[in-house]
Amino acid sequence: MGRISTFRSYQFVVLLAAALAVVAFYYFGTERQNFSSTTKRIKETQANHNSNRNDADLTVDTTFTASPDSKHAGVEQNEDGVNTQAEDGEGVLASHFHALMMFTKVDKSRSLQDKFKVAMLSMMMHADFLDDEVLVLHFVSDPGSQKLGEKILQEFLKDATFKYEVLFHDELALTHKLFPIVEAMQKHFSAGSGAYYSDAIFFLSVAMHLIMPENITRIVQLDLDLKYKTNIRDLFLEFQHFPPEAVIGITREMQPVYRHTFWQFRKENPQTKVGEPPPNGLPGVNSGVMLLDLGAMRNSVLYNQLLQPNNVAKLAEQYRFRGHLGDQDFFSMIGMEHPQLFYPLACGWNRQLCTWWRDHGYTDVFHMYYHCEGPVYIYHGNCNTPIPND
């Protein structure tokens, strides 16, 4: 009996310890689950900048859905025009600033890799966000470039002092979605079959509002050959200045490229402002830096009418237009007819450096297009032009 009693006492102690362990597990475990997995990873990596931050934050996304590591309770607009989302469990609002870059063929081009390094390091050097803000970097990529991007972004972003997310989107999946929308545009604004800008993906910005999920209402699209001289957050604040009908913020073209492209229309209409230099002319636009108000694009009856194939063909015929620069050509053409759709960004937000047209027949007028007053916020090394050192 004594042995049995001793054995039962021992069982009681074991069961009591097990019960306490279960209670402790659920008590403390539930508290930890109040943080979304993304927020926990951000907090952990910010505690040690020397850790591999991208191991936590990099995700793969081919359908423009939310990152599987992020659980959002809802979406609304904040006063800066960026998406505000509530993290599950925390009840804390975090403003998400979305920026997208085309990241194709980078694995096969040392030049593109060098440009991307300059862009990302300069962006990180100047970027500054509030504690409840997240910079979401979207990359449209092919498999080879994505693999390279995942590797090099770990180095470029390791010293970031703010929260961020990185999403890769599959180029082929997006091309499949885009092709029916932009097929009619390609014959007017592409260099030809198989050419760089003939790919449907280079019309992404034109139909971004139809591709992105509705909870993303504003996004900035950026070229790779940029160098940032100021906080990228300040660019997003330009959304606040959009007039009522504007759907896109964009800078003017700083070369006489559209003076040349519209040559036949200009010949038939000698008094036109089309292709003329600023401040009174219509020099066209440059797509190196664009603010896309996706909400406004979705709601604009006029803009969506202009996407229809018959209206694209009608305007192209009216202006005798045939270009080769993809979305930039489309925006420049509709801007001649409907300038109210565009918010003119200051030239310093996309200070283009290319001087090709100066040496190809337009020396006498080049300076009128190239001149840019005011501070430079972003340099654009288009046509492989070297960007000034700091």
UniProtKB/TrEMBL annotation:
Spans through the membrane: 12-29
GO CC annotation: endoplasmic reticulum membrane
Listed name of the protein: Xyloside xylosyltransferase 1
Gene3D superfamilies on file: Spore Coat Polysaccharide Biosynthesis Protein SpsA, Chain A (3.90.550.10)
Keywords assigned by UniProt, alphabetized: Membrane, Transmembrane, Transmembrane helix
Presence of the UniProt keyword Amino-acid biosynthesis in the record: no
Signal peptide range: none
GO molecular function: xylosyl alpha-1,3-xylosyltransferase activity
GO biological process: protein O-linked glycosylation via N-acetyl-galactosamine
Superkingdom of origin organism: Eukaryota
Entry-linked InterPro entries: Nucleotide-diphossugar_trans, XXLT1
